[in-house]
Design goal:
Number of helices: 19
Structural class: alpha/beta
Number of strands: 13
Radius of gyration: 21 Å
Helix content: 40-55%
Shape: globular
Strand content: 5-15%
Length: 439
Amino acid sequence: MSARSLTTRLIAIGGAAVLIGGLTACSSGDSGGSSGGKVEISYLIDNGPATAATAKPLIAAFEKANPDITVKLDTRPQGTDGDNLIKTQLSTGEMADVFNYNSGSLLQALNPDNTLVDLSDQSWAKDVDPQFTKVVSTSKGMYGAPFGTSFGGAIMYNKKVYEKLGLSVPTTWDEFIANSEKIKDAGDVAPIIQTYGDTWTSQLFVLADFANITAQQSDWASEYTDHKESYTKDPAFAGFDHLAEVEDKGLLNQDYASATQANGLKMLTEGTGAQYPMLTNAISTIQQDNPSKVDDIGAFAIPAQDASDTRLTIWEPNGLYVPKTTTGDKLSAAKKFIAFANSSEGCGIQNDTGTPGGPYVISTCSLPSSVPPMIGDLQKYLDEEKASPALEFLSPIKGPNLEKICIQVGSGISSAAVGAKQYDQDVVQQAQQLGIKDW
C-alpha cells in the first residue's frame, strides 16, 4: 500500500484530512544563523521505548551533519505526570530547547502564545498540511512542526486468537462483548487488555469512541465547546459506560491495575491477551520488540451500539516545539534540528526506526513501500468514509484528570454515571482558563 493511496482517502474525512503537499526538502541549515562555536541544545521526549529508538539515531545523524551542534536527550513520563512536568518547566523557564509533545487541546493548555516560539516563518511551514497547522496554531502564530504519523484510536487484536475461535471483526458493541465472552469462556486468554499502570492508556474507550459520537450528532464538538453538551448524556456517555461494563463482566486481564503498555503489547503479540484498546501508532513498538508478530495484529474501530454509526477516530501526529526561553545560538540550533527532523534524511530515519501507524503530514516523509497489514485495516474505514477526527482536534477543551477518572470507572471504584459527571466538572476550570464563553 502506498503513502499516496492511504493519504488520498484521508482527504475525504474533513477535519482529519491529511494532504501531503509539495514540500521542498529542508536542509539541516534551513533556519537561523550559525554559531561561532560549539552549541549544545536539549531535546525532551516521552519515555516510551519507540520514541527513544527514533530520537537517538536522529540526533546522531543531525550532529554528523552539524558538527558545531550537540543535542542532549532528556526524557519525561507519559500521561498526566508528563503533562504537568512540561507545564512546570515552561513556567519556571527550565524547558528543554526542543520538545516533542501533543498537538491539539493539550498544546493549547500550554498557553503557547506566551510560552512558545512562533515557527510560521520557517521554510517548511507553508507546506505542512493545513489540518495539522490548525492544531498547532493560535490566531497569533504556528508553534509546532509535525513529527511522526497520524494514527487511529482502535481495538488492536490478535488475528490468530480470532481465527482459532472462529470470531469475526465486530461492527456493534454487542458483537464486541459477545466476542469477548467467547474468548473468556475458552480460557487462558484475557479477552480485553487494560494497562492502568500507564495511566494515559485508560482513556481509549472514551476518546476513541468520539467518531461514533460524531456519526450520531455531527455538531457535538461545537455544542460541547459552547457548553451545550456533556458526557453525562448520550451519545457521549457510551465511552464511560463501556469502561464500566468490561470490568463488571470480568473481561479484563487480572493485572490490569498495574500492567503497563509494554506489558499489554506483549500480551497482545503473544496471544495471552486478545484485544487492546490502543492508539495504532503502538504498532511501532511491536515492530521493534516483536517484528515477527506484526502480521498477527489487526485493528478495528471501537464499535458503536448501531453498526451504521461505527467510525474510526483519527489523531494528528505530535509536534516539535521550542520554548521562548531558548534564544540566540541555541534558538538557531533548535530550528535547524526541527528542520532536519522534517528533511528527507530525517524522515528516512523515522521510517527506518519505527513502523508508521498512519500517513505522514509533510511531503518529505513518505510511508515505506511495505507497511503492516494493520494499516490496511484502517484503510477500509477511510475508503468507506467512516473515519473522523478526535475531539481534541475539534475542541480546545480536555480536562486534565480524564485518565484518573477513567481508571476509577474502569476499576469498578466509580460508576459510569459518576465518572462522566466528574469529567464534566473537570473540564470547567480549563475552559475558563482558556477564556471560552459560557463556561
